[in-house]
């Protein structure tokens, strides 16, 4: 009889998850089987559960993408240097595998491609490790989308600045960390209670997006600092217009580039000599796999080893394991601030 494991199965659009046993997959070429110890939740998870977006090819299925666990088995020919039982962080998602439920993270055993698997240092718990995958991939893809290589190293003399609108979100915190490591002078918007935390992660100056004069505050600070502010990442909805309002005053005659992580409406605001691009990995599999490897085995692996990248934002661990995923997702949907919800499996 084939081995089985527990999974939070999504039987139809609208959920809820039902915990049942399903067959444990055998890893094939370029696949690792991960024993899941903790998963982190993302807004895309409740969108998929509740309205089936991004599209789910068929039901029943398993969704989710953020995993920390241990290597259980490697597929034939896979030589990653990851021995069995190695503690790892894994991007385990059906997004790029035709929605395959073998890749959804909300289960005890999940497949992952080696490009998206990196060693979890001993000083971090599984719960801390689970916060990285999708947020790191999204934050880093924003830079490459607008032509900024992940090995960029600006110096203070370059005076290159960036505006991150929505810094206290999960993606935003890694946008801040990565921007600092790229050498940018980092300007961030966040609620006032998160300003000090943003500075701890690498922000040079933080502004309350609720302030009526927030645009003029940012423009004044950039002019005072004497920086070139013609790059931005819109992490949250409704942030493009104020971001363009800032760039209009700070970019001068230089072209500006904006990465936009929420879905970009066709009739979105525009600005002369400014390119606004939806933040999304390449549709070409070879290019995408190379990029994922650069994000995980490159940037994240190096950052974890040197302790220059830390888990963020703050972690809220919810009880109940797989059976608790419905209520944990409902808490995320209701709204959290500078918090990543994690479930131990």
UniProtKB/TrEMBL annotation:
Pfam families: ADH_N, ADH_zinc_N
GO molecular function: oxidoreductase activity, acting on NAD(P)H
InterPro entries named in the record: ADH-like_C, ADH-like_N, ER, GroES-like_sf, NAD(P)-bd_dom_sf, Trans-enoyl_RdTase-like
All copies of domain Enoyl reductase (ER), residue ranges: 15-343
SUPFAM superfamilies membership: GroES-like (SSF50129), NAD(P)-binding Rossmann-fold domains (SSF51735)
Keyword annotations from UniProtKB, A to Z: Oxidoreductase
Entry's family note: Belongs to the zinc-containing alcohol dehydrogenase family.
Protein name: Enoyl reductase (ER) domain-containing protein
Native organism taxonomy: Eukaryota, Fungi, Dikarya, Ascomycota, Pezizomycotina
């Amino acid at each position: 009889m084939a081995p089985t494991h527990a999974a939070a199965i999504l039987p139809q659009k609208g959920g809820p998850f039902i915990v049942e046993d399903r067959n444990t997959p055998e890893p094939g070429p370029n696949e690792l089987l991960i024993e899941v110890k903790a998963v982190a939740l993302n807004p895309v998870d409740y969108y998929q559960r509740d309205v089936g977006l991004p599209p789910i090819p068929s039901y029943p299925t398993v969704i989710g993408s953020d995993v920390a666990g241990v290597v259980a088995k490697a597929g034939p020919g896979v030589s990653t240097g990851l021995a069995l039982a190695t503690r790892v962080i894994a991007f385990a998602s059906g997004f790029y595998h035709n929605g395959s439920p073998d890749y959804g993270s909300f289960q005890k055993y999940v497949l992952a491609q080696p490009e998206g698997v990196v060693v979890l240092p001993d000083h971090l718990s599984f719960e801390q490790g689970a916060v990285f995958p999708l947020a790191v991939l999204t934050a880093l893809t924003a830079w490459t989308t607008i032509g900024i290589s992940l090995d960029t190293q600006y110096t203070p003399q370059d005076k290159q600045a960036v505006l991150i609108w929505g810094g206290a979100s999960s993606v935003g915190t890694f946008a801040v960390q990565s921007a600092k490591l790229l050498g940018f002078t980092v300007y961030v918007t966040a609620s006032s209670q998160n300003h000090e935390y943003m500075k701890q992660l690498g922000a040079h100056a933080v502004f309350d997006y609720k302030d009526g004069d927030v645009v003029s505050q940012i423009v004044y600070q950039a002019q005072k600092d004497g920086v070139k502010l013609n790059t931005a990442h819109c992490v949250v909805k409704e942030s493009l217009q104020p971001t363009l309002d800032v760039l209009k005053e700070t970019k001068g005659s230089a072209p500006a580039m904006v990465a936009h992580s929420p879905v970009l409406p066709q009739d979105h605001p525009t600005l002369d000599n400014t390119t606004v691009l939806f933040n999304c990995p390449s549709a070409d599999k070879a290019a995408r796999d190379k990029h994922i490897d650069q994000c995980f085995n490159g940037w994240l692996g190096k950052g974890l080893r040197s302790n220059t990248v830390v888990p963020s934002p703050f972690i809220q661990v919810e009880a109940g394991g797989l059976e608790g995923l419905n209520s944990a997702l409902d808490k995320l949907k209701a709204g959290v601030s500078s918090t990543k919800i994690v479930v131990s499996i």
